[in-house]
Design a protein that fits this description.
GO terms for molecular function: hydrolase activity; metal ion binding. The chain is of the alpha+beta class. 23% of the residues lie in helices and 28% in strands. The protein has a five-stranded antiparallel sheet with strand order 2-3-1-4-5. Strand 2 and strand 3 form a beta hairpin. Helix 1 crosses helix 2. The relative contact order is 0.20.
């Protein structure tokens, strides 16, 4: 077992709420974008529409949100207690081609649960 040294960069963890994912391909796309950030590891869950992200504390949560947005989805950081932090909200403007021309409309919207804007 390796000893943890004091010069190791401090880590942080966040849970992102992600809207708009509808399939395993969506999950893979989001995960791939998140792990492109140096030092980030992520586990994305379609059923809970969330991603658990472990990252260096020097990485801003806004960079995580931006990565999800670049993948084409809405995201926000879930605060302790399960509520999303509205100030760090990214809104995707379009859907990816393989799911048709729904625009920025998420599965939540199509199933009757209104999205927060």
């Amino acid at each position: 077992m390796e000893a943890i040294t004091s010069d190791a960069e401090p880590r942080a963890e966040a849970v992102l709420e992600i809207e708009g994912m509808t399939c395993a391909s969506c999950v893979a796309r989001v995960e791939k974008r998140l792990v492109r950030i140096d030092g980030v590891s992520a586990s994305v869950n379609l059923a809970t529409e969330s991603a658990r992200v472990d990252y260096p504390s020097g990485v801003d949560a806004a960079a995580l949100i931006a990565a999800v947005r670049e993948a084409g989805y809405d995201a926000r950081v879930r605060q302790r207690g399960g509520h999303a932090h509205e100030a760090v909200h990214a809104s995707a403007t379009g859907a990816h081609d393989e799911h048709g021309s729904q625009g920025g409309m998420s599965m939540m919207w199509r199933t009757g649960r209104a999205r927060h804007r």
